[in-house]
């Protein structure tokens, strides 16, 4: 029977695309494998989804990758958005159980790889004795903090929110200001905090954690974790650092709908600063105006991807506000020879790989950080949500490839501050040193994925771990299932 893996991402195009890239990478070393990717359907969907069941998500040339759509499930519309993905996975477990049983009848089911949002599926895989791995799309540093949280919870009695002037100390990392911890970790009485602890426990007890990073950029923390210095109370699960996995910039270049790549072709080498903040990186009109003031003040060439906050509320007569309405009067005209402003989306990987780009103002999402490293572009760090302040700490203090913006308490950044940091990145001696440093990391990223490289070695270790596990084709049809 054919060796098979099941990959299970949470809702969202980004999570799905990331799992697809992981599947493609696995097949480069295991071409005889088949991979099934489970697709969650958004809750309360009434439309017939059968038309999407044959979607191949760009994998037409890879028949070894197939997709199984989990039927839609009704959930209370009052569920908070941050709880929805966890609850959707939980109530989908019965169907996932059926799928895993069905696959095991015709294949050697070597393992299941879960997005950490889908941690409750470990109730299924553990009872079925299926090797279970987590795919962690951020870095090893934030993973170490996450895995340490249950221990921190046990030895403390107060919430982080009551001690924001204090720091965490974890071997292999700089001092971690509690004020920079993700919001869901700050209140030990909240439901999201409890979910976070449950995820950490499940990940710690798994057969391994696959991380989108590589040794050269997080060497200290990876060594500390592998030596057992972080999880002193128990064994660290096997870690497989198989990155960097980033978007294919060549594919992204095929459609330059916004015209930005054509514009970059006319700019001098390493002269343009990209400002891009991810799909959730939106700003108020006041902040957008300050960004514009800062860019104009810096005198640098720029390519700026603009997303305004609450655009549905800010629309006039159901029409999207124009850039002239969002930005300072005359800004577009005054900067037309030096800058380009794009609404909502641009092919980020393709832009960062372009010879004209020499700097990147980023929200510090880990995928964006890896893209910048892969293409050798130094950064200005402007974290907005989730674990991004922790990523900034690594970028600024450990990797030393980013400048830190000074923010006000509410996260607001003045135009003067932004302009000064952009100019420093592009013109100062410290900016030059960062550019040299990140170029070396670019070389290391390529070496990590090449013959004998650390990421390729870890990918082969992962492959060996599947080989060591017994196949699941003899699964008992009467296995018990326990649910919370």
Automatic annotation (TrEMBL):
Keywords assigned by UniProt, alphabetized: Glycosyltransferase, Transferase
UniProt-listed Enzyme Commission number(s): 2.4.1.-
Highest taxon above the source species: Eukaryota
Molecular functions per Gene Ontology: isoflavone 7-O-glucosyltransferase activity
Entry keyword Plastid: no
InterPro entries noted in UniProt: UDP-glycosyltransf_plant, UDP_glucos_trans, UDP_glycos_trans_CS
Enzyme class: transferase
Recorded catalytic activity of this chain's protein: a 7-hydroxyisoflavone + UDP-alpha-D-glucose = a 7-hydroxyisoflavone 7-O-beta-D-glucoside + UDP + H(+)
Short name of one Pfam family: UDPGT
Stated family: Belongs to the UDP-glycosyltransferase family.
PANTHER family the record matches: GLYCOSYLTRANSFERASE (PTHR48048), ISOFLAVONE 7-O-GLUCOSYLTRANSFERASE 1 (PTHR48048:SF33)
Entry protein name: Glycosyltransferase
Source species: Astragalus membranaceus
């Amino acid at each position: 029977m054919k060796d098979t893996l099941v990959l299970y991402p949470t809702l969202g195009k980004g999570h799905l695309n990331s799992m697809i890239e992981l599947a493609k990478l696995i097949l480069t070393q295991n071409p005889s494998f088949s991979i099934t990717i489970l697709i969650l359907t958004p809750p309360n969907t009434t439309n017939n989804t059968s038309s999407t069941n044959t979607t191949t998500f760009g994998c037409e040339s890879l028949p070894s990758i197939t997709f199984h759509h989990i039927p839609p499930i009704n959930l209370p519309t009052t569920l908070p958005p941050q709880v929805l993905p966890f609850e959707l996975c939980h109530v989908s477990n019965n169907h996932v159980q059926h799928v895993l049983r069905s696959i095991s009848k015709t294949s050697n089911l070597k393992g299941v790889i879960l997005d950490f949002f889908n941690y409750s599926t470990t109730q299924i895989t553990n009872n079925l004795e299926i090797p279970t791995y987590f795919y962690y799309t951020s870095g090893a540093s934030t993973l170490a903090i996450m895995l340490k949280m249950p221990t921190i919870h046990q030895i403390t009695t107060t919430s982080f929110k009551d001690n924001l002037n204090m720091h965490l100390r974890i071997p292999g990392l700089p001092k971690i200001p509690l004020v920079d911890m993700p919001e869901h970790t700050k209140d030990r009485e909240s439901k999201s905090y409890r979910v976070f602890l449950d995820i950490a426990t499940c990940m710690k007890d798994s057969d391994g954690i696959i991380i989108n990073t590589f040794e050269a950029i997080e060497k200290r923390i990876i060594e500390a974790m592998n030596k057992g210095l972080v999880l002193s109370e128990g064994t660290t699960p096997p870690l497989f650092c198989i990155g960097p996995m980033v978007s294919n910039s060549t594919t992204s270049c095929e459609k330059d709908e916004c015209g930005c790549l054509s514009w970059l072709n006319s700019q001098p080498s390493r002269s343009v600063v990209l400002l891009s903040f991810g799909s959730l990186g939106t700003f108020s009109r006041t902040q957008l105006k300050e960004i514009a003031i800062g860019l104009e003040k810096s005198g640098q060439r720029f390519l700026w991807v603009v997303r305004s906050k609450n655009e549905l509320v800010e629309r006039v007569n159901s029409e999207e506000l124009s850039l002239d309405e969002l930005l300072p009067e005359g800004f577009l005209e005054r900067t037309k020879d030096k800058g380009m402003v794009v609404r909502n989306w641009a092919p980020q990987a393709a832009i960062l790989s372009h010879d004209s780009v020499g700097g990147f103002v980023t929200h510090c999402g880990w995928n964006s950080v890896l893209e910048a490293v892969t293409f050798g572009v130094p950064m200005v760090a402007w974290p907005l949500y989730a674990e991004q302040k922790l990523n900034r700490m690594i970028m600024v203090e450990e990797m030393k490839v980013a400048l830190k913006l000074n923010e006000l308490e509410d996260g607001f950044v003045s135009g003067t501050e932004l302009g000064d940091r952009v100019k420093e990145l592009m013109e100062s001696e410290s900016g030059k040193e960062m550019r040299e440093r990140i170029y070396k990391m670019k070389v290391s990223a390529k070496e990590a994925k090449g013959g004998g490289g650390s990421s390729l070695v870890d990918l082969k270790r992962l492959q060996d771990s599947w080989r060591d596990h017994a196949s699941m084709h003899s699964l008992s049809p009467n296995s018990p299932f326990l649910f919370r």
